[in-house]
Amino acid sequence: ATILSQDLLDSAEPLRDTDPTTYGQIMINHGILRVAARDYQLGLSIVERGLEFLEARSHAFNDVLINGVMAKGICQLQLGLLTEAEDTFRRAQHITHRQKGVYNKEQLPMISYLTATNLRQRNSPAADQQQRFSLRVAVQSYGPDSTEILPTLARLGSYFSTRGSSIPLMAIPQLRMERDLLFKDAVRMYLRAIEIIESNYGVNDLRL
């Protein structure tokens, strides 16, 4: 696949001037394939070159950059460059904010990657904040009573219960308080999901 990708990139050379956006995306996709083949350093280098190519031909908040910026962040995360990855994912998120508003649903993958990055940094409070923000995004995007937010509520219920379980019951009082709050958040997410299901499908629906 990487050989075919390199062949495609070579054959796309005429697009460098006639269709630079397509050429830049092809270069970024080639870098992503190198990363998928576990050639992380080379993959990151190719993605960065593709991104620089696009950046030189557009403005800083052009949404055509989002895929390339996300690919760069994922490469950095795979390489353990956590601070750099966090900055890159935040940049992608900022582009969506500028283009589509603070609560746009297109940023949900960025929030997921920011959460993963924060957890690897052992910054659980920041990860929790990202997850709470994802609920606000879902509610703003779909409505507070929409069945579309059910997957988000289920995911957050699981997330907060897992986070609560990660804190020992015999921890210091401050951590025990945090543990209790996390479990309360989990219960709140599940109860809200139950309310939405009952309201939309009835009290005997199998989703319950």
Structural class by sheet pairing and helices: mainly alpha
Determine the fraction of residues in helical runs and give it as a percent range.
over 70%
List the quaternary state of the chains: single chain
- Order of SSEs, N→C? HHHHHHHHHH
Number of strands: 0
Largest sheet: none
The parts where pLDDT drops under 50 for at least 5 residues are none
First-last Cα distance:
44 Å
Number of continuous helical runs: 10
Strand portion: under 5%
Question: What do the pLDDT scores average to?
Answer: 90
| Coarse shape | globular
Radius of gyration: 21 Å
Structure description:
The protein is mainly alpha-helical. The protein has 10 helices and no strands. It is globular and about 60 Å long. The N and C termini lie far apart (44 Å). The model has no long low-confidence stretch (mean pLDDT 90).
Write the layout of secondary structure elements.
Blueprint: H1 2-11, H2 15-18, H3 20-36, H4 40-55, H5 66-78, H6 82-100, H7 108-120, H8 124-142, H9 150-165, H10 173-201
Helix pairs in contact: 1-3, 3-4, 3-5, 4-5, 5-6, 6-7, 7-8, 8-9, 9-10
Notable features of this structure?
208 residues, mainly alpha, 75% helix
Quick recap of the structure?
The protein has 208 residues and is an all-alpha fold. Helices cover 75% and strands 0% of the residues.
